[in-house]
Structure formats: structure tokens, C-alpha cells
């Protein structure tokens, strides 16, 4: 199929062909993967996802941009540079031809929404133990995302990389927190991945509560980035949020959803 991607004139035909190429003659496994990736455990989640996948593959409906990103993650499109430009171009054309999803996206109501957990007092203490012997903080654009570079002050085992949280290495207090769908870092680097908020306008959950909801990773660990500001559509603007910071310890790639956003973290030497 390599080299033939430019022959597809419609996104749903390319989507269907890629599914078949990856062994998905039907949508049973895809629907299960979709529910697992979105962490949707509702009783109707599987059937809703199955219906939406059928509609998307037949061209009856176009997935929303959020679901398009999830499909990109599921099929590992970003790992196929010969496919990616055609995948994106045909989707944009499909978006212009007809409304995305509409009433036909059965998975949309069933996907896990961004919740408004009860607020808790923000953690006030900062650990004195330092992870890095030296750190250089680079401001990445106007969004205020911060990347920390440094070296570990002591070696860590692979298990320790994800079995516990690390000390604070980035402080986003009072700064704008951006979510990053793709994080590429070298071993020893830290980056703000997302922000956890509470109810609109109120303080976010404490770090211990946030940590319990984060996935365990084989290529790094999480740490508290302090309380900054996250722009939320649900809150119609900025609201306090606790920065979630990832520190890379081992090469490898992890894919997951966090606060309803698909995230890929890729660590290199």
C-alpha cells in the first residue's frame, strides 16, 4: 500500500484502507481500543464506539477533531510519515464538505467528559530535595510552557522511574499552563504536559489527588508543577489549574489520554 496513499480522494476511504491494512476487518477490536484509550467505562460506551466507527468508515459522518486525534493515535499515523500528510489533508477536506459528527457521532455523548471534581486546598509546601544538579529553564513561546533541562544527581532504576512521583523541578505558579498532545524529550528533560483543574474559578485538587489519576509510565515520572492558569472552554476562560510535569528517565514512547486529551510522550537518548 506504500506509495498509493495519494490515490485516495476521500478521508473515510483512506481510514477504512488503513484499518484493513492493520488487520481490522471489522470494528470490534477498534471499539475496544477506543474505549480503553478514552478510559470510557460507561455501559453503552462499546456499542456507541462501534456505531461511530462504522459510520466513519462508511463515510456517513466525519469524526470531530478530538475523535480524529484519537484515531490518529490508535492507528499510529504519526509513525507513518508517508501517510500523515494525506491523512490530515483528506480530513480537512471532509470537514469542509459536511459538518463534523453532528447527530451521527454516537461515541461523542459516551466519551468521558472533563469532570469538575470537588476542589481541595492547594498544596503549599515545596520539597527541598532537588532532582537536578543544574537546571536551565527555557520559555517556549507566548503560551508560557516551560521546559527544564538538567542532569540527575543520582542514578535511578527503571522501576523507580514510574513507581513514585518526583520532586518539583518546574514552578508554574501564576503562569499559563498549556496542554501538549505530543511531547518529545531527551533523558533528563522535564516538560509541562497538562494542567488539572477543579471547579471553574476555584482552587485545583492537591498534588496527591492529581497523582492518583495519572497513568504510570515506563519512560519517566510525574511531578507537581504548582498552581497556574489554564484556559478551559468549559469555564469560558482561565481557571486555576495544577501543572502536571513529566521528567524523562528512559527512552521509549507512551500513548494515553489525560483530561480527555490524547497525549503522546516520546523520550530519546
TrEMBL record:
Residues 95-125 are annotated as: Disordered. It comes from the Bacteria. Residues 109-122 have a biased composition (Low complexity). This is Uncharacterized protein. It comes from Stappia albiluteola. The lineage of its organism: Bacteria, Pseudomonadati, Pseudomonadota, Alphaproteobacteria, Hyphomicrobiales.
Amino acid at each position: 500500500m506504500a506509495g498509493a496513499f495519494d490515490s485516495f480522494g476521500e478521508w473515510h476511504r483512506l481510514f477504512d484502507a488503513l484499518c484493513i491494512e492493520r488487520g481490522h476487518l471489522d470494528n470490534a477490536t477498534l471499539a475496544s481500543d477506543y474505549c480503553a484509550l478514552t478510559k470510557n467505562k460507561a455501559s453503552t460506551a462499546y456499542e456507541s464506539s462501534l456505531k461511530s466507527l462504522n459510520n466513519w468508515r462508511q463515510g456517513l459522518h466525519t469524526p470531530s477533531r478530538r475523535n480524529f486525534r484519537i484515531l490518529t493515535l490508535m492507528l499510529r499515523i504519526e509513525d507513518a510519515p508517508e501517510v500523515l500528510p494525506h491523512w490530515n489533508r483528506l480530513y480537512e477536506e471532509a470537514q469542509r464538505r459536511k459538518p463534523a459528527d453532528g447527530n451521527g457521532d454516537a461515541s461523542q455523548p459516551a466519551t468521558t467528559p472533563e469532570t469538575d471534581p470537588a476542589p481541595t486546598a492547594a498544596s503549599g509546601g515545596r520539597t527541598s530535595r532537588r532532582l537536578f544538579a543544574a537546571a536551565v529553564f527555557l520559555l517556549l513561546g507566548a503560551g508560557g510552557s516551560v521546559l527544564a533541562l538538567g542532569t540527575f544527581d543520582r542514578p535511578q532504576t527503571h522501576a523507580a522511574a514510574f513507581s513514585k512521583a518526583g520532586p518539583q523541578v518546574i514552578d508554574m505558579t501564576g503562569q499559563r499552563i498549556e496542554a501538549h498532545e505530543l511531547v518529545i524529550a531527551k533523558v533528563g528533560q522535564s516538560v509541562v504536559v497538562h494542567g488539572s483543574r477543579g471547579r471553574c474559578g476555584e482552587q485545583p485538587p492537591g498534588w496527591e489527588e492529581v497523582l492518583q489519576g495519572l497513568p504510570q509510565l515506563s519512560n519517566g515520572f510525574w511531578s507537581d508543577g504548582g498552581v497556574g492558569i489554564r484556559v478551559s472552554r468549559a469555564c469560558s476562560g482561565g481557571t486555576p489549574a495544577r501543572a502536571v510535569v513529566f521528567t524523562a528517565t528512559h527512552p521509549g514512547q507512551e500513548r494515553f489520554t489525560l483530561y480527555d486529551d490524547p497525549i503522546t510522550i516520546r523520550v530519546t537518548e
